[in-house]
Amino acid sequence: GEDVEQSLFLSVREGDSSVINCTYTDSSSTYLYWYKQEPGAGLQLLTYIFSNMDMKQDQRLTVLLNKKDKHLSLRIADTQTGDSAIYFCADLNQAGTALIFGKGTTLSVSS
Amino acid sequence: EAGVAQSPRYKIIEKRQSVAFWCNPISGHATLYWYQQILGQGPKLLIQFQNNGVVDDSQLPKDRFSAERLKGVDSTLKIQPAKLEDSAVYLCASSGKGVTEAFFGQGTRLTVV
Alpha helix locations (H) across B2-88? Predict the structure, then answer.
């Protein structure tokens, strides 16, 4: 079945760039997603990328997609302490109707 | 617009007891999801409704978990009897235009002791 893998932890200094990486197994994926989860909160959709795109930029966020290697990354420019959270990479299930999540990457930003 | 509402926020029960969670999706959203998020893991889909019909319940442990969505609006998820490994956050999400626009509630944190 489909699987999504992420590194578990990332620690950066305020003002630096953060890069969170993800690999997925389903070569037929049409959309790939990044969600953010702050303590005690639900999941917030940050951005998504369609599989025919290599890159998508949205303010401080840049998503890169390498379909050949099935690799997705999320770059956060000028990382702030408010960016500290768990970031989840997600793929659609084979039916295309629900999300499959990775285990999440905990981003810690120090001032 | 109002978000996805879930209650209760927290629940502590003893193993073998029963528990129920409630979800009120965003008005007009036809699709409703229940996810289970165990500590340190990503959310896992338990069940998906389209209006009041079940689309996918392949990962729902049907010997102890049940869910319903009467009238295609609110939904309840029940566990009976609970096991220690059911301790998790139960997230409800709804979507009106496909998964790209799924919105999540704050979740119910269940602790089974």
Answer: none
Q: What is the pLDDT of residues A8-32, one digit of tens each?
A: 999 999 999 999 999 998 877 788 9
User: Rounded mean pLDDT of A60-80?
Assistant: 96
Looking at the partner chain, which of B40, B99, B107 has a beta carbon nearest the beta carbon of A99? Answer: B99
Contact between B75 and B22 (Cβ < 8 Å)? yes
* Segments of chain B scoring below 50 in pLDDT: none
What DSSP string describes A28-95? T--EEEEEEE-TT--EEEEEEEETT-SEEEETTEEEEEETTTTEEEEEESS--GGG-EEEEEEEE-TT
Is A38 in contact with A85 (CB distance < 8 Å)? Answer: yes
Cα end-to-end distance, chain A, whole Å: 41
- Match 């970031």 to its residue by tokens: A87
Distance, CA of A78 to chain centre = 17
Neighboring chain A residues of B106 at a CB cutoff of 8 Å: 40-42
B43 touches A: beta carbon within 8 Å: yes
Per-residue model confidence (pLDDT) at position A96: 81
Name which of A33, A42, A103 is nearest B104 (Cβ-Cβ).
A42
Closest CA to A33 of B24, B98, B48, B59: B98
